[in-house]
């Protein structure tokens, strides 16, 4: 049981670090086509001045969710290979895959939810406060795209000096009410 708990914590950290690194790469012009696809989200669909909508504006063919999945394939395949060769017990292989899937889903779902006006999470006691804080930090990422690459767990941003929390203007945003 301790091994499973330890695996959950490690994979949670690795999964969020992975998301941070890939997102940060998507903001680098040297990433070429991937950069251009991601900038559709930032510059056309959700610029800071038009950050929320009633329905999520999907980037269609320029959606970078598929990019995350393709780049994550080695992280998905590795535990399966380690199990097949007998280096990883079945329970830990399943734990790794489940936690990777949950972290990926949570990041994707929360990210899309940040851009929805009056999302249901705003109305849940306590969760609403946390959600509002995450939305604000993500909006700041759209204001200054060299900050806040994480979605909900900002430890990587804090570790690598890309965290920004401008509390001064937090309550003046119309989409935060």
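-> sequence recovered:
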């Amino acid at each position: 049981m301790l091994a499973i708990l330890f695996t959950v914590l490690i994979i949670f950290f690795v999964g969020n670090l992975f998301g941070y690194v890939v997102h940060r790469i998507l903001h680098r012009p040297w990433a070429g086509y991937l950069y251009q696809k991601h900038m559709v989200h930032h510059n056309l669909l959700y610029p800071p001045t038009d950050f929320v909508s009633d329905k999520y504006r999907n980037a269609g063919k320029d959606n970078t969710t598929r990019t995350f999945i393709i780049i994550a394939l080695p992280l998905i395949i590795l535990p399966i290979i380690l199990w097949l060769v007998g280096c990883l017990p079945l329970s830990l292989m399943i734990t790794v895959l489940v936690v990777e899937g949950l972290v990926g889903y949570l990041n994707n779902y929360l990210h899309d939810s940040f851009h929805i006006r009056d999302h249901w999470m705003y109305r849940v006691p306590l969760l609403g406060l946390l959600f509002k804080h995450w939305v604000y930090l993500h909006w700041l990422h759209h204001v200054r795209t060299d900050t806040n690459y994480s979605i909900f767990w900002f430890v990587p941003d804090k570790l690598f000096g890309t965290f920004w929390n401008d509390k001064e203007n937090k309550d003046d945003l119309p989409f935060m009410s």
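The chain is about 60% helix and 0% strand.
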